[in-house]
């Protein structure tokens, strides 16, 4: 009985993951994690001040958010895959920096970027144009937008 229950839960979790994996292809991009070295290089380059607010759109398992919080930023991740969201949320409970780590379950296209100083994301190249438009419409002057890219690259722009 217990074995059937565990098996059921496991199959359920795999199905949920697969559904969101397919949906992410239709939205901004599937789970591909950024190398930590690239995230740290990006955070150095952004030259962020402690207490600035960063949001990672499509936060995956949360590595950009954790790295940003470690550097003193108030960091938020938004992710629509409930399994990745729960994984990051649970992980954040064990972090030394949990006071400045936030995860939201939701669609990145529905989140207002207005409160944030720094917006990061790792999305399909064709989605970057749409994110850039959203960024320009919603953020304050001086806010920065950073696209993480495959391999070890990134691109940063600032709202004039
Ligand atoms: C390439 S991964 C990036 C993960 C993380 N930001 C990193 O750099 O390691 C893209 C993530 O965006 C999520 N995603 C795709 N479309 C989304 C949407 N519309 N709303 C929220 N999350 C989305 C996917 O589930 C995936 O976890």
Explain what the structure shows.
By secondary structure, the chain is an alpha/beta fold. The chain has one domain: Rossmann fold. The chain contains five helices and six strands. It has helices spanning 2-26, 36-46, 63-70, 82-93, 125-138; strands spanning 53-57, 74-79, 101-105, 118-121, 144-149, 153-158. Strands 3-2-1-4-5-6 form a six-stranded mixed β-sheet, with helices on both faces. Strand 1 (53-57), helix 3 (63-70) and strand 2 form a beta-alpha-beta unit. The site of S-adenosylmethionine (SAM) has 26 residues, from helix 1, helix 3 and strand 2. GO terms for molecular function: protein-lysine N-methyltransferase activity.
CATH architecture descriptor text:
3-Layer(aba) Sandwich
CATH class: Alpha Beta
Number of domains: 1
List the strand order in the largest sheet: 3-2-1-4-5-6
CATH fold descriptor = Rossmann fold
- SSE succession: HHEHEHEEHEE
Compute the gyration radius: what is it? 16 Å
Low-confidence stretches: none
* End-to-end gap: 62 Å
Structural class: alpha/beta
Helix content bin: 40-55%
The largest β sheet comes out as: 6 strands, mixed
Provide the list of bound ligands, each named once. Answer: S-adenosylmethionine
Oligomer: single chain
GO biological process, one term: methylation
InterPro entries: FAM173A/B, SAM-dependent_MTases_sf
Protein name: DOT1 domain-containing protein
GO molecular function: protein-lysine N-methyltransferase activity
């Amino acid at each position: 009985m217990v074995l059937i229950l565990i098996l059921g839960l496991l199959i359920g979790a795999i199905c949920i993951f697969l559904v969101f994996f397919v949906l992410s292809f239709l939205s901004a991009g599937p789970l591909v994690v950024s190398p930590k070295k690239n995230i740290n290089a990006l955070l150095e380059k952004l030259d962020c001040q402690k207490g600035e607010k960063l949001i990672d759109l499509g936060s995956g398992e949360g590595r950009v958010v954790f790295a940003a919080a470690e550097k003193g930023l108030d960091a938020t991740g938004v992710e629509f895959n409930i399994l990745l969201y729960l994984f990051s949320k649970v992980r954040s409970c064990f972090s030394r920096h949990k006071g400045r780590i936030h995860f939201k379950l939701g669609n990145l296209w529905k989140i207002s970027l207005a409160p944030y100083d720094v917006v990061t994301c790792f999305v399909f190249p064709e989605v970057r144009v749409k994110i850039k438009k959203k960024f320009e419409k919603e953020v304050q002057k001086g806010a920065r937008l950073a696209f993480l890219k495959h391999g070890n690259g990134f691109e940063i722009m600032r709202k004039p």
